[in-house]
Amino acid sequence: MAAFTVVAPPVEDTTPPQVTATVTGERDTGGDYLGSATVTVTASDTGGSGVKAIEYRLDDGAWTAYTQAVGISTSGSHTVRYRASDNAGNTAAEKSVAFTVVERGSDACPDSDTRDTVIIGGNDTRIRNVDTGNGCTINDLIAERADYPTRAAFVRHVEAVTNTLVTAGKLTQRQAGTIVRAAAASDRGEQA
Q: Staple 189 to which of 26, 51, 151, 179, CB 3.0 to 4.6 Å?
């Protein structure tokens, strides 16, 4: 009796690689990276043909072969786009990670008000008290404990601060309105 061996046809790899990126580095209270950030991209291929290449693109630059972790030390907002391809010709959809690098020692408010939310005169707005980009939080810029000749002067100051933060994309218009209302309801400044 003859023995037969059945050989199954090879399975075609139609699955693109899985690709992820992580950003590491020392961060300030606002989540920005101090001095530099390092982006590490990893890829794996479950389709069986193996990862052929990983590519990345920093901001508006050209696609570049990824061979090692990428360090970014230029201050400002950055976006790293990344993708991977396998030996069967499948390419993963482009993904991206965004972050901001700030200069070390650029903390304009070294004794920052780091409460979790913006609080004015005991009124908790429930809005995150984020770092505004130079080491100062929203509470720092509002400076509720400074001297104001009238409550109206304090409210105008808060309006100016929040308008600037809306323009910078740190607050929404609705959040700014909530903070201004909290300022108006506070006891800061003398009643005119």
A: 151
